[in-house]
Amino acid sequence: MKNIFFFIRRYFTFLSFLLLQVFAIILLTRSSKTHEAFFTDATSELTGKLNKRYSNLRSYFSLSETNRQLAEENTRLKNLLASNIVAPDSSRITHTDTTHRDSSGRYRKFTWLPARVIGNTVTLQTNFLTLERGSNQGVKKGMAVIGPQGIVGVVVETSANISKVMSLLHRNSRVSAMLKKDNNAGSIEWDGNDPSILILRNVSKSAKVVKGDSVVTSTYSANFPSHLMVGTVASIVQDPSSNFYTLKIKTATNFFNVQYVYLVENTRYAEQVQLENTPMTNQ
User: What structural domains does the chain harbor?
Assistant: First the structure.
């Protein structure tokens, strides 16, 4: 309090001048309509600029919450897509799991869950992502992971609240993919070199592939829904000794800045994998 009195006494003349100036401006605006309009416009413009800056500042600090809300809304909309629901073959099925059926007799094949990326590597030979969502929130091993632009990887480990994803940028990653225009299928993998380039192998030379063609997930994948974006053909490698192309694919996903993803569960994943891995018996 003592310092305040010292400040007022030291700058009394200047403070008195400012006070008298404000008082004079008030008297001027009240006595003249022209001056009143001028100062009103100036005050409104200044207030508007301050409010705009304040609004922009609030919007910047609320980006994280906005992104979270958008991810949840996108998940809700994706779960309503008709492509997530298929009709069963009623002539062959004698028992169905009614948990996933709707009133029309169809069952839900894919369920989408949002997740935030809290860890990611791109410079190793075996790259992984870490997601802030685990078994307590419905994550299971084998679930597909998809970003806003394209596929990202597959869940390989889960804890209560965290999950680990094998990135497409992993030397052991294999995903069934195909050319969008003619459904010629092959296997997507990474050669450990450029994080923006994947390799699509075993595409038949009968395919009329050109640079720029879209590559999507195939109908053969147990993890991923079909026709999700993988990338575009960057170059074509022809081996005269083989009947197949090796294609270099520019990834749709930018693995350097992945922040939010979707986890996709195939409700019949375990059934499909178990049957595919069952050895054939001699009849």
Answer: 2-60 (no CATH), 109-270 (2.40.10.340)
CA-based angle 171:192:218, to the nearest 5?
55
Q: What is the three-class DSSP state of 199? A: strand
**Residue 271, Cβ density class (10 Å: 0-12 exposed, 13-18 middle, ≥19 buried):** exposed
Q: For residue 132, count other CB atoms closer than 10 A to its CB.
A: 13
Q: How far is 4 from 71, CA to CA, in rounded Å?
A: 52
- DSSP state string for 73-128: HHHHHHTT-GGGEE---TTT-S---GGGB-TTS-EE-EEEEEEEEEEE--SSSEEE
Express each pLDDT in 235-257 by its tens digit.
998 878 888 989 999 999 999 99
- CA 105, CA 18: separation in Å to the nearest integer? 79
Span 208-244, pLDDT tens digits: 899 999 999 999 988 999 999 999 999 998 878 888 9
